[in-house]
Amino acid sequence: MRISKFLAGVGIASRRESEKLILAKRIKVNGKIVSNFSYQVSHEDRVLFDDKPVPKIQKPRIWKYYKPTGLITTTKDDKNRPTVFANLPKHLPKVVSVGRLDINSEGLLILTNNGDLKRFLELPANGFKRTYRVRVRGTPTEEKLTPLLQGISIDGDKFSPMDITIDTVNKSNAWLTISLKEGKNREIRRALNHVHLEVNRLLRISYGSINLIPLRKNEVQEINLMTFVDDLLQLGFKQKDLPFELPITPRLATRKSKPKRIPKRIKRHG
Q1: What pTM was computed for the model?
Q2: Of 104, 120, 132, 204, which has the fewest CB atoms closer than 10 Å, so is most exposed?
Q3: Which residues lie closer than 8 Å to 21 by C-beta, 6 or more apart?
C-alpha cells in the first residue's frame, strides 16, 4: 500500500499529514529516507518515524476520554506542562486525538489509533456537531448573542453561526449550551469575549453521536466500532464514505428516525 495510507493506518498521522512528514524526511523504509508519496510498502518492510519503528497496522479503534483542565492536548510541550498523552493509561496503544481542547477546557476528547478516522471526524465538511456547556461571567441576552448566531469575523478569522441556549442566569454567572460544526482555536472563548462575556468554565459534552456520559475526569472508555459505524449510517453516511475498511459488515440501521424539529436559535430555560 502507499506509504501515506500505511502511516495513517498505524495512527502516526492522517494521509495528508503523513505527506508533510515525508517532505520533512522523517520517514524511512528499510533504512532509506522516503521522498515519494506513492512509495509502496508491505507488512514485511521496516518503517521508521524519526528513526523509531512504527507498529504494524491494526484494526481501527476509538475511545472517549474525559480530559480535565490543566493538560495540553499534544505529545510534547516546550514548557514541560503535563500532556494528555502522558496522562493516558499505559495499556492504550499509540493514539491520536480528534481535535483538541485547550489547557483550560475540559470534557470529551476522542482518541483513535487511525489517522484517517481522525481526519474524517475533524473535517468541517462532514458536519459533526460539537456541543459544550459553558459558564460565563456576565449577563447573556438574546440581543447580545445575536452576532454569534449570525456568524462573525474576529481578527481575520471567520466563525460560522453557533446554536446557543441560555440555560440559567444568576447575579454573577450564567450557563449556556453551545453547538458548532467546526472548532477553530479557542473559538467559543474568543466569540463570547467579543460580545463582552468572559468564559470561566468550558466543558465539551458531545461530539457527533459520542457523548461524555458516564465518564469521570481522567477516565477512558473504548467505543464499540460497529456501534459507532451504525451511528454514522444513521447520520446518512454510506459505507463507501468511511475512511477505513470494516472487518465485518455493519448491522443495517433499524431504528426509526425521529421527525425533524426546527429549534429556535436561542432558548431560555426556567
Answers
A1: 0.78
A2: 104
A3: 7, 12, 13, 27, 49
